Amino acid sequence: MRTRHLLITAGVTLALLALPGTPALGTPGSTRAPDGRGLAPALFAPAKKATKVALSVDANAGRHPISPYIYGINFAGRTSGLTKAFNVPVDRWGGNATSRYNYINNTYNTGSDWYYENIVAASGQTLTATVDRNRAAKSASLVTVPMIGWVSKDSPTSHPFTCSYPRSSFANQDSFDPWDANCGNGTKNGYSTQLDADPNTTSTPAGATFARNMVSSLVSRYGTAAAGGVKFYSLDNEPVLWNSTHRDVHPNPLTNDELWTKSQATASAIKTADGSAAVLGPSDWGWCAYYYSAADDCGRSTADRDAHGGLPLGAWYLQQFAADQKAGGVRLLDYFDEHYYPQASGVALSSAGNAATQARRLRSTRSLWDPTYVDESWISDANGRKPLTWIRTMKAWTKQYYPGTKTAITEYNFGGLESMNGALAQADVLGIYGREGLDLATLWGPSKASDPWAYAFRMYRNYNGKNAQFGDISVKAGSAATGKLAVYAARRSRDGALTIMVINKTKLSISSKLTLLNFASSSKAAVYRYSSANLRKILKKSSLSRKGKYLKTSYPGYSITLLVLPKR
User: Domain count of the chain?
Assistant: First the structure.
């Protein structure tokens, strides 16, 4: 994608390029512990003094369902062992390459991620291979449908590939593919001049009819969503970045009107082909796209926004779908979906980093919900120093502008996936998603199933190795110091058990008296723990005795602990 204000998003992070279909997972200069555990040595200093933090859980307060779809992954089937590690409820087939994916010839274009080349998908990475794999794993599929206006033509299956800026047409370019000397990056004069490509070189026009036929082909193969076919469809990928990621076919900045016109036509085409499927959009990259079209260039201009009622782009988008349903009687948008990459230095799509970066990563999860937290990045100035509270903002917008619309974050990554620090952040994020009532989320860029981030998912989805899960009905949980000890709680509808997730974000052991209200249970709680002491296993610890309404114990530094109390 592109760099703007230290913009961090999938495909390209800062100056790093990812190979087609491979998300960038690290940045230069990260710090790893000598023992390979991914935490800076200073963070492993032995605890000198225990601290105390009071916790509370009320099993009758704050009750609401936790959607299973918040535990989703992008391209889950491509990560070896992941579907066995925990039950992946939804697998997203998305990212830059899907914007121009042609389901007829299984060809996509890499765009600015890699020299604008047409690539024929490998046999195991085609759309149908992905859906086949998901069905075998009992994961719902979320498929991205192109609406940029172009999809890839046929291309050779090996170099030289068809590309938008061939050396034969543009001899003077700043960079050429080291594996294909004919394909350039489309700029010259030290990246200051962008070259104009003919879209027909690599692509063929594709509108709403293409979208309808694409979905129809999946319905023909798998049945409708209601009959077990593809359940979710996304309206392309990050359209506000099209004039950067796919500028060879879409050089002009996206406007409000273009976004709405294409979204309405594509959503209508999807619903015509499968009225039981759910549609998600606009699936855009981050803060600038939440509030401004590409034509307004992240607020450098407000002309497009002012011409459309002065509303943030996301709010206006919802308003248009609401008006369309009122006029036509059909709901075309089911999920308000945006991507979320924390912009603080060294956090998203990065390795663990030094002590300061790791502390910043653990604080950055607060930007999803905390009205007292001001983001530690360029966003704080762009947002007038106001807190983001992004999930709460999404829910407020849907309530005001299109009631009944669910919320989704189909790309996110808080970094440090190889480390305990990243596992702590991931466990915190999953707890926040459940507590705040997000309806669907899919992690971008999963690494190995044996890495710590995956154990954070296991704590919610398979903590005992026998598919036991965190509860599905959120209940009220509170901590006197969430920056030190975060707590999330839920009832499990299957057996009535109360599950409590406690995350110690500090290097110190923290003792806590947990006050438990309105839950009659046996006298003991089962204890499962993942910690820096063993990064390859969730350990079952000694049961914890309940004394009246209290559970008293200590939580080791850098640990994720699950308490399971059976219903009496």
Answer: 1
